Amino acid sequence: MQPIPTLEWTGNALRLLDQRLLPGREEYVCCGDVESLADAIRNLAVRGAPAIGIAAAYGCVLAALTTPEGGDFGKIFLEKVALLESTRPTAVNLFHCTGVQRRIFEGVGDRDELIRALLRSAHDMVEKDLAASMSMGKHGAGLLPGNCTVLTHCNAGGLATAGLGTALAVVYEAWDAGKLVKVFADETRPLFQGSRLTAWELEKAGIPVSVLPDSAAASLLASGSVDAVVVGSDRIAANGDVANKVGTYPLALAARAHDVPFYVVAPLSTFDMETESGKDIVIEFRGRGEMACLGGRKLVPDGVDAWNPAFDVTPSDLVDAIICEKGVIRYPNEDSVREFTGMVDEFGGQ
Ligand code: MRU
């Protein structure tokens, strides 16, 4: 599986595969300043928790590049970083990546040296993301039975990361290992990341995929044709509760009702050990326009409001395992998540 060119540093700008246009058109948008990149993140030209984080890390490079040297450099730089951080509240990877860049800023006084250090750090995140994807793919595929069919939600593939994915990294690995027969992809209303993006990625990779309306997922699970549900995440709280694209929680409920294992695949940068439980996760609400109109056609009468949360929280007791680059947390809860993260470097372990 070749990484998808989701984002690429050109030398003075960040080039993004414009995900709003897929699958109809493969076009790129080039962001040469923080304002245009913040716009691209907010409007989902680039989306998916790891990809948002890495894009923002390159955004910090743009913040330094586009701020003239002088007395106000630090103030303006930090305002630009804050603009990036204001784009989307739920995916913790965004804050994890800008946090790394903020710490570099605090340690480096010279502007040119800072630009080089921020750029090295962003490139390093891309490499780590690709390595994490491969590792999650292997850990996750190990949990799947032979000849298996999986159901996924939203897009947790190469498009949502630096190029390989989280949930779809498991799919790619299982496919390469000859264990996978087919994928079902929820269409994922209201923005169709499943039918537009996941189906596009899997079709490109030659993996059999069918899309279904979100509302058909419970019936599909009841039919016995799915061996596992595999999804990504935008933020995992310290007790193992999982925020992911809205529609994930009902999927977990239906999976439990029909005895189908429910797996969450996410890198360590998606864990938020400072957030105790899912109740404390800030859920992004998006505009009525995303629901009210499709392809120029009105779907909601004028004057009718819309309740449009972009994410929901699946309680940890509905999750059979969280798969990350360092291994598998089975039956996640406060103790198992703390014990696991306590053992890895990123969280102060060995
Ligand atoms: O609103 P989006 O498209 O950014 O939401 C993306 C998701 O919910 C993904 O499932 C999640 O980020 C995991 S991606 C590896």
Topology:
Layout: E1 7-9, E2 14-17, E3 28-31, H1 34-42, H2 49-65, H3 73-85, H4 92-107, H5 111-141, E4 148-152, H6 167-176, E5 180-186, H7 193-204, E6 209-212, H8 217-222, E7 228-231, E8 235-237, E9 242-245, H9 248-257, E10 262-265, E11 271-272, H10 289-292, E12 293-294, E13 297-298, E14 311-314, E15 321-324, E16 327-330, H11 334-341
Parallel strand pairs: 4-5, 4-7, 5-6, 7-10, 8-11, 10-15
Antiparallel strand pairs: 1-2, 2-3, 8-9, 9-14, 12-13, 15-16
Bound molecules: 5-S-methyl-1-O-phosphono-5-thio-D-ribulose.
5-S-methyl-1-O-phosphono-5-thio-D-ribulose (MRU) is lined by residues 47-50, 91, 154, 156, 160-161, 166, 193, 232-234, 244-245, 310.
Helix content: 25-40%
End-to-end distance, in Å? Answer: 32 Å
| CATH homology superfamily name of the largest domain | Translation initiation factor eif-2b, domain 2
Low-confidence stretches: none
Overall outline: globular
Structural class: alpha/beta
CATH class of the largest domain: Alpha Beta
The main sheet orders its strands as 6-5-4-7-10-15-16
- Spatial extent as radius of gyration: 20 Å
**Number of helical runs?**
11
Ligands in the structure? 5-S-methyl-1-O-phosphono-5-thio-D-ribulose
The assigned CATH architecture of the largest domain is 3-Layer(aba) Sandwich
The main sheet comes to: 7 strands, mixed
Mean pLDDT: 96
Number of domains: 2
What's the CATH topology name of the largest domain?
Answer: Rossmann fold
Oligomer description: single chain
What is the total tally of β strands? 16
**What is the N-to-C order of secondary-structure elements (H for helix, E for strand)?**
EEEHHHHHEHEHEHEEEHEEHEEEEEH
Strand content: 15-25%
